[in-house]
Amino acid sequence: MIVARPRLLHSGLALLLSLVIAAPVLAAHGLQFDTPVQGSVTDLGYLQSFHTTITNTGDQADTYTVIITRNMPGDWVGSLCEGTICYPPFISQITVSLDAGASTQVDVDMTPIDLEGYGSCAVQVTSDGNPSLTDTATFSVVSSGLEVLLVVDDTHGDLTPYYTAALNSTGKSYGVWKQVEMGDLTNLDLMNFSTVVWSAGELSGALGSNDFSALAYYVQHGGNLFLNGRDLAYESCDPGSPYYSASNKAWFNYILGVDYAGPVASHYASARQAGNCPIAQGLDLTLSGGDGADNTHLTLDGLATSNVGIASLEYYDADAGGLAAIKSTYGSGRSYFAGFAFEAIDNAADRSTLMQRVLGWFAGDVNAVDDQPVHPLLAAPARAVPNPFNPRTSVRFEVGGAGAVNARVAVYDIRGQLVRRLLDGQVQPGPQSLAWDGRDDQGRALATGVYLARIQLDGQDAGCTKMTLTK
Question: How far is the C-alpha of 412 from the C-alpha of 451, rounded, in Å?
């Protein structure tokens, strides 16, 4: 027994040492940078604050260098706040000290002042104890009041330049929303823009339930949607697709006037005018090669019209069959859907021409005998000045055309309930301004919150602007 005791002690010590060696060891330095929201549609003059959290996940105290890099219109302001300290806009670098396991909140504040547009602030966080530990996030704002919102929803490279070059040729103001980075858009976000150009690119399952809901509301209430991408109709309308559902198919059928007619082999990658659609008149589009994205692979979406859809482009070459693009109306809005990726068009001139004509049709500048009568539209987007406001603001818009139109302007709360009638009568073409004192039709002061001013011209929804009442 006496002889055996040292052996027991030795084996027990060996076991203890093995447990110590197997136990996980925290790294001396660590970093976690959480960024739950990275995009916003924001009114001019309104401060948008993005909340982030920096956490020291190491086992000892560390300091972190935070650098902000601004890419914004000239009069926009971007700045940092850490805890209770807010730094002036000319400060681009701050240092944060954290004990092991501690966290702190860093806010990225962006304010669009007077210039409409879009901008971003890139924020880089680096551990001073171990500079190889670094993380970067980009925070972006698109100002309300722009004519077009470009939504780029793809992870296969940056397709944005194909669209911005074409939009530049239209002369319309626009902002860019990179959805994978900036997150989903709501119907209230979309209603700030008269037109949405949505590029789904090559992203499988690109449209989600939130997108379907927001876009249906948007088009129904007067918005104009140009939607394109690879395999979108197949994914939503073909029962063999993993993204198929009856509701997704119904959305394409009724909102876009589109149904899926089957695949079209990619070697038929050419499209031309279908019927007498003036949007496509004279166009002969090659959908691969050239200076395009060259992302037409295997098959394209062959389309058929549904509901009130009207053929615009058709595939051809050796009886390829199937439509390539369809225009339609739903509620008070219009849509144009392409069964191919816009960026695949093989030259910039044709991309610009198609973009100009689609946006022209949205604005009522392109007419055909098979179209519905063109209703009067706003000559400029509606806006509220000031916004946010307390207690008064002015709803401003401009009526186009050559003669008087019947106009109705009403304010709704976030639930869609009518709270105030601002105008119901005839107006002449030109700028309009209507004052609102933040009260309902009974003269009662309304609560802090977001409200919508909806404009109807000759019975048709022509525009909408979001207003924020603060107290």
Answer: 6
